[in-house]
Prior knowledge:
Layout: E1 2-6, H1 10-21, H2 23-30, E2 35-40, E3 44-47, H3 54-64, E4 70-71, H4 76-82, E5 87-90, H5 102-111, E6 115-118, H6 121-137, E7 142-143, H7 154-161, E8 167-173, H8 176-188, H9 192-201, H10 210-213, H11 216-230, E9 240-241, H12 249-257, E10 260-268, E11 273-281, E12 292-299, E13 304-310, H13 314-336
Helix pairs in contact: 1-3, 1-13, 4-5, 5-6, 6-11, 8-9
Amino acid sequence: MKVVIAGFGTVGQGVAEVIGMRRELFQKGFRQKVTIVGAFDSSSLVKNPRGLDPEVLVARKAGTGRVGKRPLDGGAEEFIEEYDFDTLIETTPTNIVDAEPGLTYIRTALNAGKNVVTSNKGPLALKFRELTSTAAKNKVQLRYEASVGGAMPVINLSRELLRGEQIYSLRGILNGTCNFILNRMKDEGLPFEQALREAQEMGIAERDPTYDIDGVDSACKLAILANAIFGRDVTYNDVMRTGIRSITEDAISLASEQHMVVRLIGEINDKRVEVSPRMVPVGHPLAIGGTLNIVQLITDLAGDITVAGRGAGRKETASAVLSDLLALMNEGRGKRR
């Protein structure tokens, strides 16, 4: 399988590293190679039909800030459309305003008859139905396990291993930054602003934490899950959203007196798709602390199924991309038979 990596930030670099680490798995498990034949970031491009060394790509990015030596010069669409490769691994940053540039990259690849594996929430949260229809029309695959929950395999679990289940509803914690802040407020009695600063100092929260603390990140993920698992046709803008800015020490203390904790919970059921702060009983799976993501699926046969994992990180998100690449390779093997 020949792949091109679009976007070479933290996730893109992690994907390159994991592809290098799993050469033996590809060969022994699938009798195939996964070869990086191209990569580009916001300003540069590198390509080689014979393959590129993942370690060299990562080292160049670390040393120069650019993945390639030649300028991109706005030619990404033409490159995706005309270059010979099988799968676009799209890892550009989430943009919830218009989903660009990832949306254009994904559209171009699908229309050119190329599979897409993406970690980017923006295009899926805004244009899910269009993109999945485009993939079907062109008889290629769009896979996006890495767009929700990083290493937590909730999409593939629901759509493949739980295919025979009727999934009634879903609820979960989909943002580790908010979970860390709320947990620190409870454990140390910190005010919100102090807990946020601590998260920023530790690298858990961004300098601009808006997407996290205002529930934007969680709402994006919830829209994707509503479409992917429940067959809805919703966008990020349809999700009812309340963040955690207004949570006070008094609210945390009051919850604690009732043996409860406050968590930012996303929920999908037959009445709503919503993310908001909720009180959760101490000891409940959704009372989990730290930065983990966790989702509960309520099913008819298996009952409640809970899955948890690291919701972000270089290798963690790359592991979800890897699972989608392996699924593509497995399907290709089946077709050859």
